[in-house]
């Protein structure tokens, strides 16, 4: 099988693997707090506090371990890391079905964070197997698998939990994660596209040299930092979205309409992720990234002034269209500017910053909403996105030679 056919086959397999991983990771989200309530007679404050801790600890360990997995993947092969990650996630989730206390669940969620590098590692692998000029389109396609799974996961998780109980749902989720690892083990053929770039792609970089490469590339560094601020902005509204829906729509069918509000952004993401990647392949990744940051900020602001649920749904859909293109375009940009032998580690640092944003965002959103009201969350988020866009634009203006130099 030639490399082009292998690359297409790998992309298809990794699409399904990402679908299963993202779906499995989000299946337990709707009932995590309800699961905690089954461990004893607890106050609402206790359940809310531990729900936040149990949810957030996974991102904390993922923040610490993402660069490590990225470096291991660069040196020892990304297929091995994907298999280890899938099996590690499967074991973690399987054991969650047998816990008898909140602390046991907390420890397993912490352990689970160690293995959450599957999706970022798959991005690195597909990136290095795709010619530079079409990496945006390929990564956009891969992103649709992730988004599709994340959209379907909560719905199936809720249905399963109501039908067969929490423990069996965890066990079925673990089986799905294990299947994703098996898809990779028996279906994926790992290789790297050979390119005449003038770089020594087989050269081994120390961690210090990787960091120096990032720090000496102002645009790359800004793209990585922007990734964190995008996550802060995006996750600031996530924990309180249901409360906001309740405020503008009322309590009637609150779970249903909150779910639609969450999903609307995912649908917009799903429809445009590949398209944004293709556009960026043609006109430049920095230009598209800059546009998406500004557009996301512009779309976010009207959310502070919506008067009914339908206005919110339209804005959430538009937000998905804009903010959803940032991940594949950002990853494709790294594909252009980072040597192949360190792309996994660079993506690992980027993913680590994204997880840090996942931790800061909900805390910031909760503080702002509690102190100043929901409007402050939308305004602050808008300012973060616009500031990120203007900062990137300023760096690009000062480094004009970097724009599309790889084209």
Keywords:
single chain; 407 residues; mainly alpha; Growth Hormone, Chain: A; 2 domains; 0% strand
Global mean pLDDT: 84
Do you know the CATH architecture of the largest domain? Up-down Bundle
CATH class of the largest domain: Mainly Alpha
Gyration radius (Cα, Å) is: 21 Å
Largest sheet, strands/sense/barrel? none
- The CATH homologous superfamily of the largest domain is named MFS general substrate transporter like domains
Give a structural overview.
- Keywords: Cell membrane, Membrane, Transmembrane, Transmembrane helix, Transport.
- This protein has 407 residues and is mostly helical.
- The chain folds into two domains: 1-187, MFS general substrate transporter like domains (Growth Hormone, Chain: A); 207-407, Growth Hormone, Chain: A.
- The chain contains 17 helices and no strands.
- The model has no long low-confidence stretch (mean pLDDT 84).
Short summary:
The protein is mainly α. It has helices at 3-27, 32-37, 44-76, 78-96, 102-113, 118-128, 135-164, 166-187, 207-215, 218-236, 241-249, 254-283, 285-300, 309-323, 326-337, 343-372, 374-398.
What secondary-structure arrangement, pairings included, does this model have?
Layout: H1 3-27, H2 32-37, H3 44-76, H4 78-96, H5 102-113, H6 118-128, H7 135-164, H8 166-187, H9 207-215, H10 218-236, H11 241-249, H12 254-283, H13 285-300, H14 309-323, H15 326-337, H16 343-372, H17 374-398
Helix pairs in contact: 1-6, 1-7, 1-8, 3-4, 3-5, 3-16, 4-5, 4-6, 4-8, 6-7, 6-16, 7-8, 7-12, 7-15, 10-15, 10-16, 10-17, 11-12, 12-13, 12-14, 12-15, 13-14, 13-15, 13-17, 16-17
């Amino acid at each position: 099988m030639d490399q082009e056919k292998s690359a297409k086959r790998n992309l298809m397999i990794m699409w399904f693997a990402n679908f299963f991983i993202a779906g499995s990771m989000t299946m337990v989200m709707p009932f995590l707090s309800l699961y905690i309530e089954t461990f004893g007679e607890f106050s609402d404050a206790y359940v809310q506090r531990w729900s936040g801790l149990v949810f957030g600890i996974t991102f904390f360990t993922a923040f610490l371990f993402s660069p490590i997995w990225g470096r291991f993947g660069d040196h020892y092969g990304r297929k091995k890391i994907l298999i280890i990650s899938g099996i590690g996630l499967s074991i973690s989730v399987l054991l969650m079905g047998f816990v008898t206390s909140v602390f046991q669940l907390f420890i397993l969620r912490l352990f689970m964070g160690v293995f959450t590098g599957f999706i970022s590692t798959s991005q690195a692998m597909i990136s290095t197997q795709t010619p530079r000029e079409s990496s945006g389109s390929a990564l956009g396609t891969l992103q649709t698998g992730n988004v599709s799974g994340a959209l379907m996961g909560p719905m199936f998780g809720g249905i399963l939990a109501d039908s067969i109980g929490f423990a069996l749902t965890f066990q079925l989720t673990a089986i799905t994660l294990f299947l994703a690892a098996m898809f990779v083990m028996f279906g994926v053929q790992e290789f790297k596209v050979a390119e005449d770039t003038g770089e020594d792609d087989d050269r081994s970089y120390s961690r210090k040299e990787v960091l120096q490469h990032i720090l000496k590339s102002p645009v790359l560094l800004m793209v990585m930092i922007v990734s964190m601020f995008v996550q802060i902005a995006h996750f600031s509204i996530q924990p309180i979205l249901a409360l906001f829906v309740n405020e503008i729509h009322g309590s009637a069918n609150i779970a249903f309409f909150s779910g639609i509000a969450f999903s609307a952004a995912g649908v917009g993401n799903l429809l445009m992720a590949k398209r944004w990647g293709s556009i960026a392949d043609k006109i430049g990744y920095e230009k598209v990234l800059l546009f998406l940051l500004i557009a996301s900020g512009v779309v976010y602001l009207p959310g502070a002034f919506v008067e009914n649920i339908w206005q919110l749904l339209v804005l959430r859909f538009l937000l998905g269209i804009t903010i959803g293109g940032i991940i594949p375009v950002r990853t494709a940009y790294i594909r252009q500017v980072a040597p192949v032998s360190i792309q996994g580690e660079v993506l690992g640092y980027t993913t680590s910053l994204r997880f840090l944003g996942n931790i800061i965002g909900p805390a910031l959103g909760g503080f702002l909403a509690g102190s100043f009201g929901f409007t402050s969350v939308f305004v602050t988020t808008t300012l973060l996105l616009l500031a990120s866009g203007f900062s990137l634009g300023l760096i690009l203006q000062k480094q004009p030679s970097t724009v599309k130099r790889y084209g």
